């Protein structure tokens, strides 16, 4: 199977005084349709940089970024914007909803900016809000919703463009334990239902078993992806059997 998101030998350098800092250092990443991939690592290790490059918001210094088979690194800025709108959904830690718009309008606005017809947008927005458990809150404004509900609107909004890739940055950082778990469960559900290649940056290692695979970033380098739990090996035909069962090789392999 061809990966939906494929980063090949990606390096991202920033000027750092007289030298350069490698925010990403020869990163390879493959995420398939319907795979929920989590990314962990210490602060400053390059997780946000990886998401930004995968989202085509930042061009890598070298390497390839392939989305649904298309090489984003060879595209002009306008083409890149189209690719991002068509193929990529981004969910940031803070929902950044517009205070004056209802939940359904938050979603329609995104589609309007994509130039899609309004009638279909309302139908899809209503369906998606139902999927994320907000079918009875379509006309509520952000201040009438809880933090968890606002994050659900954020997730539904990211799905409006029918993305193939879903990039999620610390979705539970502002939520309590119960709401955090329900948000990660929702991301699991939408990854399955819409077959997105989902990458989630998280500090919440507790919820990793809800995902399929996990890799650790350190100093811009991405470690080997391993199954996130003994019960999530089913999506790893490409991994060798020893990699599929890392818990058999002792705890050091699973140190997040
Ligand atoms: N725009 C930038 N200009 C210069 N250096 C940057 C820039 N963005 C990130 N960096 C540096 O790149 C490295 C990786 O940063 P990045 O934000 O990707 O890490 P992170 O793992 O997401 O950290 P955190 O968990 O704290 O968000 C850090 O050393 C950071 O200081």
TrEMBL record:
Which SUPFAM superfamilies did the record assign? P-loop containing nucleoside triphosphate hydrolases
Instruction: Extract the ranges annotated as region (Disordered).
Output: 225-256
Answer yes or no on keyword ATP-binding.
yes
Task: Say which domain of life the source belongs to.
Answer: Bacteria
The yes or no answer to whether the keyword ATP-binding is present is yes
- Tell me which residues make up the ABC transporter domain: 5-244
Q: Keywords on this record? A: ATP-binding, Nucleotide-binding, Transport
Q: Name one GO molecular function term.
A: ATP binding
Which Pfam families would you find in this protein's record? Answer: ABC_tran
Q: What is this protein called?
A: ABC transporter ATP-binding protein
Organism in which the protein naturally occurs: Arthrobacter ramosus
């Amino acid at each position: 199977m061809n990966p939906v998101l494929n980063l090949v030998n990606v390096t991202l350098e920033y000027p750092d005084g007289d030298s350069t800092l490698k925010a990403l250092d020869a990163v390879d990443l493959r995420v398939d349709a319907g795979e929920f991939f989590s990314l962990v690592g210490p602060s400053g290790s390059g997780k946000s940089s990886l998401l930004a490059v995968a989202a085509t918001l930042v061009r890598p210094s070298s390497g390839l970024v392939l989305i649904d088979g298309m090489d984003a690194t060879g595209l002009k800025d306008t083409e890149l914007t189209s690719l991002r709108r068509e193929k990529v959904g981004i969910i940031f830690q803070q929902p950044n909803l517009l205070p004056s718009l209802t939940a359904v309008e938050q979603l329609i606005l995104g589609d309007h900016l994509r130039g899609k017809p309004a009638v279909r947008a309302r139908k899809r927005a209503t369906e998606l809000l139902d999927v994320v458990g907000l079918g009875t809150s379509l006309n509520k404004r952000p201040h009438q919703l809880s933090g968890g509900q606002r994050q659900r609107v954020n997730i539904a909004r990211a799905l409006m463009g029918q993305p193939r890739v879903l990039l999620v940055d610390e979705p539970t950082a502002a939520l309590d334990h119960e709401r955090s778990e329900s948000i990660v469960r929702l991301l699991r559900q939408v990854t399955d239902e819409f077959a997105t290649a989902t990458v989630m940056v998280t500090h919440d290692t507790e919820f990793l078993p809800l995902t399929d695979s996990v890799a650790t970033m350190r100093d811009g380098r991405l470690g080997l992806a391993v199954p996130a739990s003994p019960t999530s090996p089913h999506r790893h035909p490409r991994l060798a059997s020893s990699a599929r069962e890392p818990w058999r090789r002792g705890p050091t392999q699973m140190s997040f």
